[in-house]
Specification:
Strand content of chain B: under 5%
Order of helices and strands of chain A: HHHHHHHHHH
Oligomer: heterodimer
Shape of chain A: globular
Number of domains of chain B: 2
Largest sheet of chain B: 3 strands, antiparallel
Radius of gyration of chain B: 23 Å
Distance between the termini of chain A: 54 Å
Radius of gyration of chain A: 19 Å
Helix content of chain B: 55-70%
Shape of chain B: flat
């Protein structure tokens, strides 16, 4: 191949990849107004007990130690910022982490559920990701299901003596995938397909979002591992402060 | 920083502070936005959705003095979700050709018929209407005022405190991250994909370390100023005018009439 041809092939390959990856910008927040009112209420009610449990746990922590409130708030801000940062991507397109896996591993799923609601509310009004009426559905998928699965997998892997990096990777990547699957199910229940019903619709939504979400889940896993390596290398006291050490190793 | 098309957390926040409707009463704006949102969703009529989009765009332009280009740019932030979600609602996967249009793929057919396409289009319009209603709040009301509205709606004080602090810390962290990103860039840290991944992991980890250290300093500073579990801000008095309420009711009545037609 001549240089020109090589350039052309590279350019077209980039364009092809771009088509696949660019739509990742919106992550998996269900946008404002996409769900019918009954579904909004239903998912809000389902998410409520988890959020309440998290609220009581944070309340206990803060009542014991007033100064802990800045720590909790900083954790929330950290989750927000991590999820709003542009992450490196092969094509130069704009995509984001969900940060749920990292949050769950560091701060525990109960705290993340409450912080998740606040973060999702701010994401809606500051970033236009998600919405006010879909807050319940998004809370369930991103602040409850994802973190709980991440945390569960992480714990299970540690119990089974899996390599720590592998367990962090699995927890973050699978947590991301669960978020994406739960969101697809939520959309499918609201809009069942005419012939296949809800299961058919689940497959459609999974398929539509798969090209963007699958690479993103892997990338989220890799980045979370790199972040955890950086933290373990020079932030042992801080990790202990957020309660990671007792929970982890 | 590219201001025009950036939709980072700073841009909506900045627009909210610049908005011409900032002087309006925040509780009134919340009622107007949420009421319109609920009407738009409950009516579920393309005509109502279109009316909401147009009237609110006019309001943002006329009263909020927001350039329409910025406004519609922001309206299209969820574009990717809208298109993909809309496509999934409009199309159907079957093993035998059906409907009005078919796309043949290796094992199955993707098909769509006129009704499902019409339904998806109405859904997309409704979602855009709902997003404009949300923007009526987000682009005109600062986050602190929003939290104040929630506090008056008897949200537990602990959550309000957390929201005030998180809102503040988000911008502290973004500043910190901006500096680290620049420092990494000066050392060619974003040169290629592999290096970018390593730099991103390093900066994100460092961000957590610095933020936790910072949180201790904030706790000390707040304790030194007598923080006892409640932050109180001096809120400006922003009275509601009768004309505003009248216009709101007229708008809602018009929407209801459109829905009933």
């Amino acid at each position: 191949m001549t240089q020109k041809q090589r350039k052309l092939v590279r350019l077209t390959a980039c364009a092809a990849l771009l088509c696949g990856v660019v739509p990742a910008a919106g992550a998996m927040h269900i946008m404002e107004g996409f769900l019918p009112p009954s579904m909004c209420i239903l998912w809000g009610v389902i998410a409520l007990p988890f959020v309440l449990a998290g609220y009581f746990s944070i309340k206990k922590t803060v009542a014991r130690e007033r100064r802990a409130i800045t720590l909790v708030a900083m954790a929330g801000a950290f989750i927000f910022v991590i999820s709003s940062l542009k992450i490196p991507s092969v094509t130069g397109s704009c995509s984001h982490m969900t940060g749920t896996g990292l949050g769950a591993i560091l701060f525990g799923p109960a705290a993340v559920s409450v912080l998740g609601v606040i973060v999702l509310l701010f994401q809606a009004v500051l970033l236009a990701h998600g919405g006010l009426t879909t807050l319940g559905a998004n809370t369930f998928s991103m602040a409850v299901a994802g973190p709980f699965v991440s945390f569960g997998i992480y714990k299970l892997c540690l119990r089974l003596k899996v390599n720590k990096k592998v367990s962090v990777f699995l927890a973050a990547a699978l947590g991301d995938l669960v978020t994406y699957c739960v969101t697809s199910v939520q959309l499918a229940v609201a809009y069942p397909s005419a012939t296949g019903g809800v299961p058919g619709s689940v497959i459609e939504f999974l398929g539509v979002f798969a090209p963007t979400q699958l690479p993103l889940a892997v990338l989220e896993g890799v980045l979370t591992v790199i972040i955890m390596i950086a933290l373990e290398a020079y932030a042992q006291p801080e990790l202990r402060a957020v309660g990671f050490e007792e929970a982890g190793a | 920083m590219a201001h025009r098309h950036a939709h980072g957390p700073r841009s909506i926040d900045r627009l909210a502070y610049q908005s011409g409707m900032r002087r309006w009463n925040p509780v009134f704006k919340t009622v107007l936005a949420v009421g319109t949102l609920i009407l738009c969703l409950a009516a579920d009529r393309p005509a109502v959705s279109a009316a909401v989009i147009l009237v609110l765009a006019a309001l943002q332009k006329g009263k909020g003095r927001l350039p329409l280009r910025d406004y519609f740019g922001l309206l299209l932030v969820p574009l990717a979700f809208l298109l993909l979600g809309g496509a999934a609602v409009a199309c159907d996967i079957v093993f035998a050709p059906a409907g009005d249009w078919n796309l043949r793929l290796p094992w199955f057919y993707v098909c769509a018929d006129a009704d499902s396409v019409r339904f998806a289009a109405a859904l997309v319009l409704k979602a855009l209407g709902a997003v404009s209603a949300m923007y009526l709040l987000a682009l005109t009301t600062t986050a602190c005022e929003l939290v104040d509205v929630l506090r008056r709606a008897h949200l537990p004080p602990l959550l309000c405190e957390l929201m005030y602090l998180i809102y503040r810390f988000v911008f502290v962290l973004l500043d910190m991250y901006g500096r680290m990103r620049q420092a990494a860039g000066a050392r060619l840290g974003w040169r290629d994909f592999r290096t970018s991944c390593r730099s991103f992991g390093g900066t994100a980890g460092n961000l957590l370390v610095l933020s936790l250290r910072r949180s201790r300093i904030y706790a000390d500073a707040m304790a030194a100023r007598g923080y006892d579990g409640e932050l109180r801000f001096l809120a400006e008095e922003k009275p509601v005018r009768g004309a505003q309420v009248l216009w709101m009711l007229l708008f809602w009545a018009a929407l209801l009439a459109l829905a009933a037609v």
